[in-house]
Write a structure and sequence with these properties.
mainly beta; Double-stranded beta-helix; 7-stranded antiparallel β-sheet; 6-stranded antiparallel β-sheet; 19 strands; globular
């Protein structure tokens, strides 16, 4: 993948699942990419819900070639995270622009409070995940003895064996919308 701040050229070997609004150009090698909808998955089963939600659905493009992706919002940029074998990567669905077909995905939710739930995607396998962010991505290491509480809105995702739980009781001044993490891994936050 070749990426700039607002543009990425992705070399596709077999397939790419991508947010349709981010596609700027398709450059297939031999034949046109074949498009199909992408769906959320839970416990290995495909759900009847579009991945990304109804208003910002992702689609699956099968084939080989290059795909040019661009940021969809004026003040955002693209970033890539790599998934390595034997590791899990969790990403908030609303930051997800695309991922390689070599990755397996499962859907879930991050609960920030009673009324705020953020759709999440769990990735396994080996490949790249492309995100669209309005601020810089910060990685915060969390050790097995650590317990961290953060605003759910700033969580982009995490890797490793981190376990989130709503944390209103431990939030500053009893505030709402906080989530706590325990375990071991790296927490990805957008703080600015």
């Amino acid at each position: 993948m070749i990426s700039g701040d607002r543009l990425a050229i992705v070399r596709v070997r077999e397939s790419l699942t991508v947010r349709t609004a981010a596609v700027r150009a398709l450059l297939p090698e031999k034949k046109a990419f074949e498009a199909s909808p992408a769906y959320r998955r839970m416990r290995g089963n495909q759900l009847d819900e579009p991945l990304g939600g109804v208003d910002a659905a992702l689609g699956h493009l099968a084939g080989a070639g290059r795909i040019v992706l661009g940021a969809t919002k004026p003040d955002s940029h693209l970033a890539a995270l790599l998934v390595v074998p034997d590791e899990l990567l969790y990403v908030r669905e609303d930051f997800l622009i695309g991922f390689e077909g070599s990755l397996r995905h499962e859907s879930g939710r991050l609960t920030g409070e009673e009324t705020a739930q953020y759709p999440m995607v769990q990735f396994s396998g080996e490949g790249a995940v492309i995100l669209e962010l309005a601020g810089r991505l910060h990685a915060l290491p969390v050790g097995p003895e650590d317990s961290i509480t953060v605003a759910a809105l700033s969580v982009v995702g995490w890797t490793g064996r981190l376990f989130p739980r709503p944390r209103e009781a431990h939030a500053p001044a009893g505030g709402r919308g906080f989530v706590g993490f325990t375990g071991s891994g790296s927490l990805f936050l957008m703080l600015d």
